[in-house]
Predict the 3D structure of the following.
Amino acid sequence: MDSVRLYSRRADSYIRFVKFFRYPQGIRAYFLRAPFLRSGLRVLDAGCGSGVATLALRDALRRRAMAGDSFQAFDLTPAMLERFRTTLQKRAIHDVELAQANVLELDGLPVEWASYDLIVSASMFEYLPPHRLSEGFQGLRSRLKEDGRFVLFITRRNWFTRLLIGKWWQANLYDKQELEKELRKAGFTSVTFSRFPFRYRFLALWGYIIEAKN
C-alpha cells in the first residue's frame, strides 16, 4: 500500500493516533523554546498532512508575540489536505496557503514558493524510498535562503517503532547515523540533533528532531 492510499484510508485514525501521544503539543513545546524563531519568518511545511507542524509552529509564534509570518504547506495526499483545510476554516485562519505536491517533484509547486527562512517536515520522509532520501532533502534545501534552516521530525528505528510505526504505519525507519549521512549528502553542512522539552521527553522514544543548515 502506498502512502497516499494508506493515509486516505486511515486519515481519521492518524489524527487520533497523534493526539493520543500528544505529538502536536510536543512539537509546539519545541518551537516555544526554539531560539531561531522571530517575527516575519517565511515558512514551508513539507508533507504537512493534517497540519500538525504548521499549527504548532503558528501557535508558538503567536504565544511568543511574533507576527507577520508567511506559511505555505504541501502534501501528497488530498484527503489529508482536505482535513487541514477544514481545520483552517473552523479556526478562521487565513495566512496558510496549501498545495498538493510530491517532495520528489517540487517543480510542481508555484514558482514563488522559494527562499524560505524555515522549512519544517514532520513524519513525511519515512515514506520516501530509502535510496531517494537525500534527493528529498536536497530538494528542500534548494528552497531555503542561504542562511535558512530545515527542521525535521522523523521516526527513529528501535523495538518500539518497528512494531508501532514500521509495521502498522508501513514506514521506513532510520538511525541517527543514517539520517546525518543522508542530510550531509544532500548538501547540509550543519546537522544538529535536538530534543523535545522535558515534559514531552517521552516522544524521544518515537523519533528525532534534527536541525540542518546550509
